[in-house]
Specification:
alpha+beta, Phosphorylase Kinase, domain 1, Transferase(Phosphotransferase), domain 1, 2 domains, five-stranded antiparallel β-sheet, three-stranded antiparallel β-sheet, globular
Length: 269
């Protein structure tokens, strides 16, 4: 049982029924927040490690500081950053739905992919209009409602307020973000700046995975992931699955272009 003096609670025995997932660094679970006349549903986000690094805690605090730039219409907006017994956790609005990653593992119907793709692109567009670059877009950070098709983004722990940012060369395993979804310029190996178009590359990886049921690349270690994003060209989705329209396959491949100039320049196309 997660229960704090602030009144937040999430019954561990029920989390498997209400939803529990990880993004590689943090655990997301559903809980309750005391409010006027009752309790509101919230998402409670805590570090996955028993003894989280200072960098991990900084990322949680950073996401909370962005709360005034995020909107409930397209993001799971931060509400609170309480600490309990030396552990800090982030409280988010719960927009409902589930992480997109729960839908993956097999090709999704093209109509469903298009429905969610429009929502993800619209949410990214709103994020970019507020001067933010997500830098860690992936299925665990995309909440989808399968009933009404609504999409909300989360996972803003490394989001940047800079219109352009340069990633210095570092060992791949130390770069913040998720290598499988990382734009080539985020690897620090291309001498190119990170900007909003980096998120569009990550969107391309997500759409590819939705259409095919697998990532565009497979890699055994961090350096191989870097090589894939920088040097390998993925097989077009329509060549892997004949039922995928050529026009949709072209959109995904344009998003996956190695240089930002070759991609769509905004989330609107």
């Amino acid at each position: 049982m997660i229960k704090s003096s602030h009144g937040y609670s999430a019954n561990g025995n029920n989390l498997s029924l209400q939803g529990l997932w990880e993004d590689g660094e943090r655990v997301f679970c559903r809980g309750r927040r005391p409010g006027n006349g009752g309790a509101d549903n919230v998402l409670i986000v805590r570090p996955a490690a028993d003894h989280p690094s200072s960098a991990s805690l900084d990322r949680i605090a950073h996401e909370f500081r962005l709360k005034d730039l995020l909107d409930s219409a397209w993001a799971a907006r931060p509400l609170d950053l309480p600490s309990e017994d030396g552990r800090t956790f982030l409280v988010l609005e719960d927009p409902g739905g589930e992480p997109l990653e729960w839908q993956l593992g097999a090709p999704m119907e093209v109509g469903i992919v298009l429905r969610f793709a429009v929502g993800i692109a619209a949410a990214l567009g709103q994020l970019h209009e507020r001067g933010l670059v997500h830098k860690d877009l992936k299925p665990a950070h995309i909440l989808v409602n399968c009933t009404d098709g609504r999409v909300r983004l989360t996972g803003f722990g490394i989001a940047s307020r800079l219109p352009r940012e340069h990633q210095a060369p570092e060992p791949p395993e130390t770069i913040a973000g998720t290598l499988a979804y990382m734009a080539p310029e985020q690897t620090g190996r291309m001498n190119r700046s990170i900007d909003s178009r980096s998120d569009l590359y990550s969107l391309g990886v997500v759409l590819y995975q939705m259409l095919i049921g697998a990532l565009p690349y497979a890699a055994a270690d961090p350096m191989e992931w870097v090589h894939c994003h920088i040097a390998r060209k993925p097989v077009p989705p329509s060549e892997r699955l004949a039922s995928i329209p050529a026009a949709l396959s072209h959109i995904v491949m344009k998003l996956l272009a190695k240089t930002a100039e070759e991609r769509y320049q905004t989330a609107a196309g």
